[in-house]
């Protein structure tokens, strides 16, 4: 049996099926099926590159295979965490892998009211305060998401560090990419922002109630 002919046919068949997968990826709008087809393409091209001794293709897809596998695992983990979070509390723990760490000192202003907004923050430690409303944000709070939702993309309040701590920042571009790759994230993000809005309204109402002084009726003359 001529192994060279078998290798040639295997290479042709592999290239054909790989081409089908590549064309199929062009019609996909979300990242998870795109990664799945990319992994299948990598496996097919690796399998056909071995008998044809196409080492350049073999090395390329041997490198791409673990990258695509890792990215797929990341997205599947995100989907699971989002679904779990939607049915539980509004935790942002699952967003940490996509964030950048930033240390803040007391008196430092992270952003000012009306300035252009491009990121939001997750509070890991320390104390932070929204200056205009006087609301102090606890550890685990998310702040800065309203700037993404506002038509002008500007900050609605000033955020100041009251006690040295650390925050995790994530850019709006990254949030948009997460939404495109996983539409379920968009629902969760809107739910989170809505909850924060109602929390702020409730806090402001409580503060107004505390500062309101009841009017004392003047005694009528006898």
UniProtKB/TrEMBL annotation:
> SMART domains given for it?
cNMP (SM00100)
Report the Gene3D superfamilies cross-referenced here.
Answer: Jelly Rolls (2.60.120.10)
Q: Which organism is this protein's natural source?
A: Bradyrhizobium elkanii
Query: Which ranges does the record mark as transmembrane?
Result: 6-25, 32-50
InterPro entries xref list: cNMP-bd_dom, cNMP-bd_dom_sf, RmlC-like_jellyroll
Cite the entry's keywords alphabetically.
Answer: Membrane, Transmembrane, Transmembrane helix
Q: What is this protein called?
A: Uncharacterized protein
Lineage of the species this protein comes from: Bacteria, Pseudomonadati, Pseudomonadota, Alphaproteobacteria, Hyphomicrobiales
